[in-house]
Amino acid sequence: MRSQTRPLLDVEELLEALTLEEKASLLAGCDFWHTTPIPRYNIPSVRFSDGPNGVRGTRFFKPVPALCLPCGTGLGATWNPDLLYEVGKLLSRECEAKGAHVWLGPTVNMLRSPLNGRGFESFSEDPYLSGVLAGAIIRGVQSRGTLAALKHFVANDQETDKISCDIRMSHRALREIYLKPFQIAMAQGGPRVIMASYNKVNGIHASENPKLLQQILREEWNFDGLVLSDWFGTYSCSKALNAGLDVEMPGPSRHRGCCLKLQPAEGIKRSVELARTCKHVFVVVGLNSNLEKEGMDRTTMTLPDYYDDLVWAVLAAQPNAIVITQAGNPFAMPWHSKVKTLVHSWYGGNESGNAVADVLLGKANPSGKLPFTLFDRLQDGPSALSFGNDNGSLYYAEGIFVGYRWFEARGIKVAFPFGHGLSYTTFAISALSVSPTEALVDIENTGSVSGAEVLRLYVSHIATANKTKSRFLRAKRTLAAFAKVHLQPGEKRCVALALTKDSTAVWDEQGESRWKGAFF
Predict the structure, then answer these.
(1) Number of helical (H) and strand (E) elements in the chain, helices listed first
(2) Active site residue: 166, 230, 297, 376, which one?
(3) Would you say the pTM of this structure is higher than 0.90?
(4) Using CA atoms, how far apart are residues 243 and 385, in angstroms rounded to an integer?
(5) Does residue 50 have an active-site annotation?
(6) In a structure prediction context, what are the per-residue pLDDT tens digits for the chain, which is 520 residues long?
(7) If 0-12 CB within 10 Å is exposed, 13-18 middle and 19+ buried, where does residue 61 land?
(8) How far is CA 444 from CA 153, 328, 421, 440, 480, in A?
(9) With contact defined as beta carbons under 8 Å apart, do 459 and 435 qualify?
């Protein structure tokens, strides 16, 4: 573990001694991954390293192997802040092994659309869940002396023209949905670095936006750490500096190899023949790094080419086939109602195969819950009419109705709702009582094996619940608190879920102040 003792240093005296050239050199990196050192004053170079599901170091070709952890949405499905704290400590140890001082994560951008090429890096479609999990992983990373860079601040929710696209939204949506996970993560995790996003927000690039970097981040939220650009994400030195950006960084190049041409018809035929002769059949389908990655968004929710055909064909030959899916973002599963056993494995990292096998063999009891909504048709989603780029600008017309808020408000039937997840045991919930500061509820494991359940507390405005008029348009319900509870068979526990004033508050755009809510 690195020493966390801060050296005694007279910053003003040091700045006075530096030349103008030396001062300027501290405002930008000296290469892809390092800040500029000043040896004569023992100012070291700071090394950065990606990424959200593993510390890859500073080389793209033939690097030292990195531990591959589950993707962001996979971690989000655990709904387990304690586990993410341990993941953070593990990431910090990886940073130490690779000589990195700053881990470029976590990502808390919103899963607004299933087409987002980097959506798998985020935790959830819900800002509260995202912020709590991010705070936990940040605490874990920084507990050992490594710094965490919370990113991408803010509204970097697509890859299409992300550098030039102007993301436009109401100030209420900005405050309640897109800034909220950053605010929570900062309050609970205390990140020392914030990475600005590429895109514009309401007309101004995030890296040179004084309202975001100065007024909100530093003055309102009292952030006193480092504000870093995304790689090649600075467009005007003077505007960025005056707005509050501290360091500009460059970025890497990309290289892709050739593709192997497959013969899907022959492969499906062989799979069907095999399925007819086997007692246990597993079909593994999903997405991969060619389809979910930085630099591009998906163009459809459907699986690639022949994957759906493969599932339909195998199910016809063996109706009891187990389907295992892999992806970081939502995708369409037209066959899901015909599948008797469906396991979603996310991008599970090094131990993904062992973890799935343990679940299938009953050695581990699954306890994951969806951090987003799985729905069937792209046109049913909140971003269907405003994703990509419309002449250099994009308006988030759905406002605060992101994810489950949208589907519930519109009464749209979905494949699997936000928070869905099965277990090999059963739970009974009873004796709910609510006060202004907390909710108390009893939970009991009524099954025969140990397991974990996620208790989720939602709040609803009285006017919304009673279908009466309100000054503010509200979601039917909003996640306010959650707790993951591990119980042995027959064990019963009373769990307290804390509530704060923010649990029921909305943003008043007319006065830019929070409006007091009421419980339902």
Answers:
(1) 14, 19
(2) 230
(3) no
(4) 32
(5) no
(6) 665 555 567 888 999 999 999 998 899 888 888 999 999 998 999 999 987 788 986 664 455 678 899 999 999 999 999 999 999 999 999 999 888 999 999 999 999 999 999 999 999 999 999 999 999 999 999 999 999 999 999 999 999 989 889 999 999 999 999 999 999 999 999 999 999 999 999 999 999 999 999 999 999 999 999 999 999 999 988 899 999 999 999 733 333 345 556 688 888 999 999 999 999 999 999 998 888 988 889 989 999 878 999 999 999 999 999 999 999 999 999 999 999 999 999 999 989 999 999 999 999 999 999 999 999 999 999 998 888 866 788 899 999 999 999 999 999 999 999 999 999 999 999 999 999 899 999 999 999 999 999 999 999 887 655 666 667 888 999 999 999 999 999 999 999 999 998 888 888 877 665 555 444 3
(7) exposed
(8) 41, 32, 17, 14, 22
(9) no
> Do the strands 147-153 and 102-103 form a parallel or antiparallel pair, or are they unpaired?
parallel
Q: Is 370 exposed, middle or buried (0-12, 13-18, 19+ CB in 10 A)?
A: buried
Query: Smallest Cα–Cα separation from 504: which of 495, 516, 496?
Result: 516
CA distance 165 to 64: 36
Q: What are phi and psi of 88, to 5 degrees?
A: -60, -40
**Quick one: tokens of 386?**
């405003």
Question: 266 Cβ partners below 8 Å, 6+ apart?
Answer: none
Say which residue the tokens 């900005």 belong to: 174
